[in-house]
Amino acid sequence: MAERNRYLIPALGTLLVLAGAAAHFLTAPERILEGVHILDEGGRPLVEIHFTVPVRQEGVLPEGGMGALVQVKLRTPMVAADHHDEYLGRAGIVGGDRRVPLTDVAYEARVPGGPLLTLRFERPVRFRLGDRDDRTRLRLLIEEVPADAG
Questions:
Q1: β-strands 93-94, 33-41: how paired?
Q2: Cα-flanking dihedrals φ and ψ of residue 3, to 5°?
Q3: I need a labelling partner for 86 at 20 to 30 A (CA). Which of 13, 40, 55, 118 fits?
Q4: φ, ψ at 9 (rounded to 5°)
């Protein structure tokens, strides 16, 4: 009997560790948006959005690359699919550049066609999405803010 009990406690400990790891990876994170940063890359402004989970961009509106409202269609892991919506106003955006009139960023999970990442600008900007290689950040390169916009 003592011989059997000798293995019981380590086996139970291992099961508890495995259960904790499974719970960590199989539950939805508290937040999807980690942060929004306005940076300068080679003299051009850049909006960089960081996520807490891997995302894949599947499309962008407006397709022409110019607008005051930019929506990026995302694909997120199943655990985040029904996650709540999140909003970051101007105070939640780190950095600043007068060439980037960004007012707010929203992650909208429960909208038709969602989840969507929505960026609102004070006036139209010409933009292009950065490379799709990075799974936890999205880069929006601001090419110009038209002088007659606004």
A1: parallel
A2: -65, -40
A3: 40
A4: -65, -45
